[in-house]
Write a structure and sequence with these properties.
- This protein has 6 helices and 3 strands.
- By secondary structure, it is mostly helical.
- The protein has a 3-stranded antiparallel beta sheet.
- It starts with 5 loop residues before the first helix and ends with a helix.
Length: about 150
């Protein structure tokens, strides 16, 4: 295998930042804060509602306290209900209410559609390879960073 150059690493990092910047700009027009958006995105995209606050913290890469605060506000607005997990001390599952599901779908739909259109604009071979390459790179990077 060839050696990765500093220029290649810089290019990858710049592309990651470009993607995150594009999301940040679009999310800022949605009317919710970025962290809250990613919680909505996760809940809407998975549609099974079987997440705890700890699960969302891990999936969204957000501090648990941030997730707790956002979920508490969502519950106060009637968008989610929290149900205790049997046999646990304080673990709760998060479920979207009908109102929350409708709000969440309306909130994330423009982003999801933009993602779909962007993906469909890629050549077929790129669409086939991209998920595997991203997964493999993410796993390799996490493994290396965990050693620091």
């Amino acid at each position: 295998m060839g050696e990765c150059t500093q220029e290649q690493m810089l290019f990858i990092e710049q592309q990651v930042q470009e993607i995150m910047g594009a999301y940040r700009e679009a999310i800022s027009r949605s009317g919710v804060l970025e962290n809250e958006f990613w919680i909505w995105y996760t809940l809407v995209m998975t549609q099974d509602g079987d997440f705890s606050q700890q699960d969302l913290s891990n999936i969204c890469a957000l501090p648990k306290q941030t997730v707790n605060t956002i979920v508490r506000r969502m519950a106060e607005r009637g968008h989610v209900v929290l149900k205790m997990v049997p046999g646990t001390r304080n673990r709760k599952r998060i479920y979207l209410t009908e109102t929350g599901a409708a709000f969440g779908r309306a909130l994330v739909a423009p982003i999801i559609e933009a993602e779909r259109r962007a993906y469909e604009n890629l050549p077929e071979e790129d669409r086939r390879l991209l998920p595997r390459i991203l997964r493999d790179y993410t796993n390799a990077l996490r493994q290396e960073l965990d050693q620091i």
